[in-house]
Specification:
This protein has about 290 residues and is α/β, with parallel strands linked by helices. It is about 40% helix and about 20% strand. It has helices at about 5-10, 30-40, 55-65, 75-85, 90-95, 115-130, 145-155, 170-175, 235-240, 250-265, 270-280, and strands at about 15-20, 45-50, 65-70, 85, 100-105, 110-115, 135-140, 160-165, 180-185, 195-200, 225, 245-250. Helix 7 packs parallel to helix 8 (about 170-175). It binds NADP nicotinamide-adenine-dinucleotide phosphate.
Length: about 290
């Protein structure tokens, strides 16, 4: 619920940014500027290219120049977790921050959040009508996105959270985030799970033609979430859908993690429809910031 005090504060113009390297193709400016316009906040969101190793300087400037909110992407998520004043439980467990809130109650405090897990679970529920509670899940990959998925699925009540990854040590570390529900499996066990999540880059960029597992392993009772959103349709999604499997790309997760950040920064409910429409148009719409 929005307080009178926070409402007054939000009518002031403010700057928010995403830091990363590279960050030029980030959808975050398009998504957040659309949200600010939709709710009538005089905020502007920019993509800020910060070279690897310089995240602490970017954080210091939040306080100095009154930057109200920061999104964090590769390669800064761990460095920001080390540099903020405090961390939420998720961010601390993952040692990764994707959203910084500048709290200015009595003195300034930079709080590091990780909203990726929230984004993933909300996308599962809303885009795929998939309830993680009581489900069995296979995560392909063991990087930052996979780790956030393992923790969030455990918190959402999944009863079996398996990780398959080409580097087994990283698979063990990701599975451990799910506690006693976590395990490491071979990818050819995919047929055993209710939900399959692709958290590898197989299907995008130079790996655009590849799939993380053979869709021959899957059956129509399963659900697939491919965290890739560019391209919006990977070969894995196409092949899964051709087998009658419910499948969705990573755009929903991206939008919902941004929506959570928006709410943390502004105390306004996020305008999901406007954010979704902006994300679907791609980074070019960021050329029209909030006015
Ligand atoms: N939708 C969203 O909001 C969202 C958010 C974050 C990420 N993502 C997407 O999720 C994917 C993973 O991102 P991330 O940040 O977790 O990346 P990351 O930390 O670099 O992890 C990548 C994972 O993929 C595996 N991998 C990489 N190349 C591979 C290959 N050629 N064959 C097999 N496995 C391979 C890596 O295995 P090793 O451990 O063996 O190196 C690692 O486990 C990306 O496609 C990214 O775009 C989406």
């Amino acid at each position: 619920m929005q307080t009178k005090e926070s409402s007054a504060m939000q009518t002031k113009p403010a700057l928010a940014a995403v830091i990363g390297a590279p960050v030029g193709h980030s959808l975050s400016p398009a998504i957040h500027n659309a949200a600010f316009r939709e709710v009538g906040l005089p905020w502007v969101f920019v993509a800020w290219e910060v070279p690897d190793g310089y995240a602490p300087e970017a954080l210091a400037s939040m306080e100095r120049f009154g930057i109200a909110g920061l999104s964090v992407t590769m390669p800064h998520k761990s460095a920001v977790a080390e540099a903020v004043d405090s961390l939420t439980e998720e961010a601390k467990t993952l040692n990764a921050v994707n959203c910084v809130v500048c709290k200015t109650d009595s003195e300034t405090e930079l709080v590091g959040h990780n909203t990726d897990g929230y984004g993933l679970i909300t996308s599962l529920r809303e885009d795929l009508a998939f309830n993680p509670d009581g489900s069995t899940c296979l995560i392909l990959g063991a990087g930052g996105a996979a780790r956030a998925a393992a923790l969030a699925l455990a918190q959402a009540g999944a009863v079996r959270i398996a990780v398959a990854n080409r580097t087994s040590e990283r698979a063990e570390q990701a599975a451990a985030l799910a506690g006693d529900k976590g395990e490491v499996v071979a990818p050819d066990t995919a047929g055993e799970f209710d939900l399959i999540i692709n958290a590898t880059p197989l299907g995008m960029g130079k790996l655009a033609g590849e799939t993380p597992i053979s869709p021959m392993l899957l059956h129509p009772d399963q659900t697939v979430l491919d965290l890739i959103y560019d391209p919006p349709e990977t070969p894995f999604l196409t092949q899964a859908r051709s087998k009658g499997i419910k499948a969705h790309n990573g755009l929903g997760m991206l939008i919902h993690q941004a929506a959570r950040a928006f709410e943390l920064w502004t105390s306004h409910p996020a305008p999901i429809q406007a954010m979704t429409a902006a994300a679907s148009q791609g980074p070019a719409s960021s050329q029209s910031p909030a006015s």
